[in-house]
Amino acid sequence: MSFEQISYLAQIVASVGVVVSLIFVGLQIRQNTGALQRNEHNSTMAQWTVIRMAIAKNRDIAELMTAGLQGERALDAADQLRLEQMLAENVWASFHIWERTQRGIFPKGTFELSCGAHLCGLFTTAGGGRWWRNAKETGFPPGFVVDVAAALAKNAEAYSEASVAVNKDSHDS
């Protein structure tokens, strides 16, 4: 084997080594991306857990949310502020899911499936709707506000269709 042939063989081996290295790096990046996405999911769940547990463990907060959203009683200034902060926490946690979905960290449709109905439940109440009408203008990105409006419209349409079906079933009985 001549020196030139050895040189060609070395270049081929080096090229194969580079390709194998690139494949390995690609696999490592994919694995790391998966871990980062899992961390984002875990972070999101932790944010929601704090909110849910505050309501579940503290009857006072649950009663405040119920009374404030339904307009069952007038809230004093302190309770109104507490209600607004709980609503803001719910919406900001939803915003983070929306934003992570926009960036492709969460699968397309995650916001609509995980937060759309929840926010509709809040914003179709007297207190929640009043708060959202003011808050959406001052504290949230326009794209998020548009997507919340779409969820509200879709939910209203679904509610209307469900009401028609229930009324039809009642009439047929």
Give an account of the 3D structure.
With 173 residues, the protein is an all-alpha fold. Helices cover 87% and strands 0% of the residues. The protein is built from six helices and no strands. The chain has helices spanning 3-57, 59-70, 77-102, 110-123, 126-138, 142-172. The longest helix is centred in the first third of the chain and has 55 residues, at 3-57. It is elongated. The protein starts with a helix and ends with a helix. The model has no long low-confidence stretch (mean pLDDT 84).
Query: Strand count, sense and closure of the main sheet?
Result: none
% residues in beta strands: under 5%
Distinct helical segment count:
6
Structural class: mainly alpha
Indicate the mean pLDDT: 84
- Low-pLDDT segments, ≥5 res: none
Number of strands: 0
Between the first and last Cα atoms, what is the distance in angstroms? 94 Å
What is the topology?
Layout: H1 3-57, H2 59-70, H3 77-102, H4 110-123, H5 126-138, H6 142-172
Helix pairs in contact: 1-2, 1-3, 2-3, 3-4, 4-6
Keywords:
mainly alpha; 6 helices; single chain
Briefly characterize the structure.
With 173 residues, this protein is mainly α. 87% of the residues lie in helices and 0% in strands.
